[in-house]
């Protein structure tokens, strides 16, 4: 092993608000549907999250955690932060990451119209009664088309905002270093942002100010719940889990979105694309670069950055302050250590997430891989 000095930029410390990170490498949120049926995280999840801190990641962002016992849950066996039992079960998991030198942020998620498994409610809700594109994800136990959601009432909206705030407070009580508001990938807050999905005629619709109003209300409520000294971030994307081709109208709209969200009381922006370094539109800057240019906050970039050269490039060019890995982290939880030491990196095997994207399947995959390994 040798010390890879040319990757040193990835291992420089920095701060996200009040949170000091030991390096610029984060684990991206990845849904693993491995909690109990009641949304309480399990002991196997403790080992799963701890391994990333052991492997050298400075920041771990959890999978999306549902926020209330109403319409927020997206998947069966998804973990939550909707009650005290779920909060208390997160405490040892959080402590396990922190004791290994990592920082850990809870991502707060409301699935809304994309929910495909929710024991608390029958049916789904969304900004408007518009059937989502695409098919439910089978590796999260979904089948067939998405249901047509009921249009949210003001009471539904108020309940969703309160759910984010209460979950954020539980995250702080559980010891998390911060929270990330999931405003990306086609879930609730992204649905309100999206023309063609948000067909409302009230103050949550129309131009960008209206379509971003719910996100702004959630940020304000979360900030009031956790206080000024606690880290709050927001994740944004163009593509959705049910529509990978979705794009904003262009660079001008992207700039306006980032100015508005960056102007809220948040500490960072987390942007995700399939390949983070590519132009956000046909030509021009990447989405992360646009967020950095117009958002005025530190940026975490996500999207196929398991190639160290691409990860370094994002930071070196000033397009991102931190890079987050999904597939790269799943392929090897010690990706940072391997990169620092110049060791070989493994390729991601989709079988890790098939037929189910849960931790039990990952254990089976790992056992088989060990059995088939030469020697």
Largest beta sheet: strand ordering: 3-4-5-8-9-10-11-12
Arithmetic mean pLDDT: 96
User: Poorly predicted ranges (pLDDT <50, ≥5 residues)?
Assistant: none
How many structural domains in the coordinates? 1
Overall 3D form: globular
What structural class results from the helix and strand content? alpha/beta
CATH class: Alpha Beta
List keywords for this structure.
375 residues, alpha/beta, 8-stranded parallel barrel, two-stranded antiparallel sheet
Describe the structure.
Helix 1 packs parallel to helix 2 and helix 3 (154-174) runs parallel beside helix 6 (213-226). The chain has twelve helices and twelve strands. By secondary structure, the chain is of the alpha/beta class.
Short description:
The chain is α/β, with parallel strands linked by helices and about 375 residues long. The protein is built from twelve helices and twelve strands.
Task: Give the helix/strand layout.
Layout: E1 14-16, E2 19-21, E3 25-27, H1 43-54, E4 59-66, H2 84-99, E5 103-109, E6 125-126, E7 150-151, H3 154-174, E8 178-182, H4 188-193, H5 208-211, H6 213-226, E9 231-237, H7 251-262, E10 268-272, H8 287-295, E11 299-302, H9 308-316, E12 322-325, H10 327-331, H11 335-341, H12 359-372
Parallel strand pairs: 3-4, 3-12, 4-5, 5-8, 6-7, 8-9, 9-10, 10-11, 11-12
Antiparallel strand pairs: 1-2
Helix pairs in contact: 1-2, 2-3, 3-6, 7-8
